[in-house]
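Saturday, quiet lab. Running sequence design on the structure tokens for the scaffold JK sent over.
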């Protein structure tokens, strides 16, 4: 049972790393970006190519994955997304889902439909004893990364000038702009940050979920559940929701293999009935 919970927590951390960027951008910009998984795929493929073809190490490849996804997000924000911030949500959905299908087709064409090869670095292979329980080193690394990103985001958004500007823009964009905050540039930077976090999660998913061109569609519903159940525009909400979804999904598939895949939808329905505004309702980004 402990191993199942541990694996569920590790899986939840991956969902959090990818989904938290979507929570930030939706909470700040009110933009329905269904293409968030595509940025995770960009980061994953960037890490895979650099490791398998360029001989780059795993940890430098993680940094490269973050940068590649952030740059891709910055380009799309500048070219397309910023023009639809005040558009109807249906227009936003059509644009972002179009980006998903274009990315799936492009990555299928250039890299083929198969899962990308991946080998763990020696330091993350095998198992380690932790509190009397043997756990996988890589899954433990995922948990450490998730907690580190959570702490960094809470610190950055709660204790820095940038965080204060983000919170002000979340509360009232017009007033924030009137005080001298360049809201458009803030949107650009925040959107790029969210995409970079997705890219980091995509690279880390190489060793657990696998990466193929259908990745943005395959896991889209999981990212949306994490954000909707946790509370769009918050940090701790998606963190709690991701842990919940990860543990329920892994435990369900382990103990009820025939019906386990549907348990997360049951949990989603129950949680939204009990907490329609999310586990942590938005009161600023926290």
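Result came back. Writing it out in full:
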């Amino acid at each position: 049972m402990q191993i199942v919970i541990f694996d569920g927590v590790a899986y939840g951390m991956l969902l959090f790393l990818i989904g938290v960027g979507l929570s930030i951008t939706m909470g700040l910009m009110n933009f329905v970006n269904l293409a968030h998984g595509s940025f995770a795929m960009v980061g994953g493929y960037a890490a895979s190519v650099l490791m398998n073809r360029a001989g780059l190490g795993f940890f430098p490849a993680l940094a490269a994955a973050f940068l590649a996804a952030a740059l891709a997000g910055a380009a799309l924000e500048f070219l397309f997304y910023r023009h639809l911030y005040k558009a109807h949500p249906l227009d936003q959905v059509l644009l972002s889902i179009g980006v998903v299908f274009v990315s799936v087709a492009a990555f299928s064409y250039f890299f083929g439909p198969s899962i990308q090869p991946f080998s763990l670095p020696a330091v993350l292979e095998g198992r380690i004893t932790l509190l009397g329980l043997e756990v996988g080193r890589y899954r433990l690394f995922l948990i450490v990364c998730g907690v580190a990103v959570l702490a960094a985001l809470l610190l950055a958004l709660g204790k820095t000038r940038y965080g204060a500007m983000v919170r002000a823009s979340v509360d009232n964009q017009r007033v924030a702009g009137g005080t001298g905050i360049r809201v458009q540039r803030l949107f650009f930077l925040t959107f790029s940050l969210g995409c970079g976090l997705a890219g980091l999660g995509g690279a880390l998913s190489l060793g657990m979920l696998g990466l193929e061109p259908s990745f943005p569609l395959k896991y889209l519903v999981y990212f949306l559940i994490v954000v909707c159940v946790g509370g769009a525009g918050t940090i701790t909400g998606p963190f709690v929701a991701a842990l919940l979804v990860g543990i329920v999904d892994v435990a369900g598939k382990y103990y009820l293999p025939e019906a386990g895949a549907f348990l997360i939808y049951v949990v989603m329905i129950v949680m939204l009935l009990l907490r329609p505004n999310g586990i942590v309702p938005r009161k600023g980004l926290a």
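Notes for JK: The domain at 2-274 is CATH 1.10.3470 (ABC transporter involved in vitamin B12 uptake, BtuC). The chain has a mean pLDDT of 89. Ask whether to fix the surface positions before the next round.
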